[in-house]
Write a structure and sequence with these properties.
Blueprint (H helix, E strand, L loop, with lengths): L5 H12 L21 E5 L2 E4 L4 E4 L14 H11 L10 H13 L5 E5 L2 H16 L3 E5 L12 E2 L9 E2 L6 H4 L2 E4 L4 H10 L4 E6 L15 H12 L2 E5 L11 H6 L5 E5 L9 E5 L1 H4 L18 H16 L2 H23 L4 E5 L2 E5 L8 H4 L4 H13 L2 E2 L8 E2 L6 H17 L1
Parallel strand pairs: 3-15, 5-8, 5-9, 9-10, 10-11
Antiparallel strand pairs: 1-2, 2-3, 4-12, 6-7, 11-12, 13-14, 14-16
Helix pairs in contact: 2-10, 3-10, 6-7, 11-14
The protein binds ligand KE4.
Length: 428
């Protein structure tokens, strides 16, 4: 009988105290089978598990590690900030610097409020949109995830235009029924929803690049049409850029696609790996927030000096480091390599990518929405995931997650990745 590995022992221990042994469900490997490994440390584009196995990391802590793990400038910034104290609950200079950075790099962000997670950011943004418009209904899209916000843990009702059903226990139907869930990339359904609910819809919230059902892209003209409809209907357009913010470029998806939303949500990268969130946009809307206005929002650790120091270091490196050209080059190299691996092995894989975000679906393409993504062969994906893990390459443990390349990934790392993929694909 083989002695359990340290990861196995830790997982058994974790199961005693933590539901499912994890503090966030996707970490439990339920999408791919098996047990999660436990990490000991991370540096650059690599993580080492507690049994000493080295892994090339394409999860990047789900997006924040765009500069790789333990970037020296981020570590140094955290150390220096920590010597002054770890939390104040008092306004501090670093939160002003972070706000100015976001204000400068994202023109739509006339005002910004910092918080502690992407979930807090989207939860606050929809409350603000409802408070500002005096309307209660929301539109979200199938396949888009915005954190575990009651009003957004909602799935499509029976008919496309009917009101939403809870997508989690504990969400009251009374609340989910205020959310209309529509197919992404289907602008007619948006027009029909506003026609069916005139003057009642406070906001549309979307991931401009849905990356929580794998990854697929907005069709040409789709985002422009959402902008035009919301402006005409007096509804607030909210871009959830928790993942795409500072990932696709300093201006995020809104700069990439040339759309100005009314409100935007951020997280992940702006915290340099520490807990963070932010939401902001039009001043006339943001000034509805307490203490100025009637919409309440608060947070003990909002603007936390360590998270601000880490995030500022990350954004300043991204701003000055010529990082996005490198990320695009690595992304293109991986895309070409994975397409070769698919052709070489004869296994159909649809590889979607934008910049340094990607997803390989085990299905003939195209994959342009959730319905297409759901056709992927998940059993094959699971075998591919474990085959790559055995080859020392850690991909997201779910077909319905995006992968991330960092500036720490070298061309040699990318080449090793698609060569391993070709070998694994041949075996599954
Ligand atoms: P957090 O509350 O997890 O910081 O952010 C929620 C969130 C909001 N909006 C978008 C577009 C997001 O992708 C997320 C969180 N992303 C997931 C990855 N699919 C985080 C990983 C996890 O849940 O453990």
């Amino acid at each position: 009988m083989k002695a359990p590995t340290r990861s196995q022992a830790l997982f058994a221990e974790a199961l005693k105290y933590i539901p499912g042994g994890v503090n966030s469900p996707v970490r439990a490997f339920r999408g791919v089978g098996g047990q999660p490994f436990f990490v000991d440390r991370a540096l650059g584009c690599r993580v080492w598990d507690v049994d000493g196995n080295e892994l090339l990391d394409y999860v990047g802590t789900w997006g924040p590690a765009i500069l790789g793990h333990a970037h020296p400038k981020i570590i140094k910034a955290i150390q220096a900030a920590a010597e002054h104290g770890t939390s104040f609950g008092i306004p501090n200079p670093l939160e002003v610097k972070m706000a100015e950075l976001i204000w400068r790099e994202v023109p739509s962000m006339q005002k910004v409020r910092l918080c502690n997670s992407g979930t807090e950011a989207t939860m606050s943004a929809i409350r603000l949109a409802r408070g500002f418009t005096g309307r209660d209904k929301l539109i979200k899209f199938e396949g888009c995830y915005h954190g575990h916000v009651d009003s957004l843990l909602v799935k499509a009702g029976s008919g496309a235009l009917t009101l939403g059903q809870p997508d989690s226990a504990g969400v009251p139907v009374a609340l989910s029924s205020l959310t209309i869930v529509l197919p992404f990339n289907d602008i007619e359904s948006v027009r029909a929803a506003f026609a069916a609910h005139p003057g009642e819809i406070a906001a549309i919230i979307l991931e401009p690049v849905p990356a929580n059902a794998g990854l697929y892209l907005p069709e040409p003209g789709y985002l422009e049409a959402l902008r035009e409809i919301t402006a005409r209907e007096g509804a607030i357009l909210i871009f959830d850029e928790v993942m795409t913010g500072f990932r696709l470029g300093m201006g995020g998806a809104q700069d990439h696609f040339g759309i100005t939303p009314d409100l935007s949500c951020f997280g992940k990268i702006i915290g340099g790996g520490l807990p963070v969130g932010a939401f902001g946009g039009r001043s006339d809307i943001m000034d509805f927030l307490a203490p100025l206005g009637p919409v309440y929002q608060a947070g003990t650790l909002s603007g936390n000096p360590l998270a601000m120091a880490a995030g500022i270091a990350a954004l300043e490196e991204l701003e000055h480091g010529g990082c996005y050209d490198a990320l695009e080059s690595r992304g293109a190299q991986l895309e070409a390599g994975m397409r070769w691996a698919s052709e070489h092995s004869g296994v159909p894989v649809t590889f979607n990518r934008i910049g340094s975000m990607f997803c390989g679906y085990f299905v003939e393409g195209p994959v342009r929405n959730l319905a297409d993504a759901m056709k992927s062969n998940r059993e094959r994906f699971a075998k591919f995931f474990h085959g790559m893990l055995s080859a020392g390459i850690y991909l997201a443990p779910s077909q319905f997650e995006a992968g991330f390349i960092s500036t720490a990934h070298s061309p040699e790392d990318i080449e090793a990745t698609f060569n391993a993929a070709a070998a694994v694909m041949k075996r599954i």
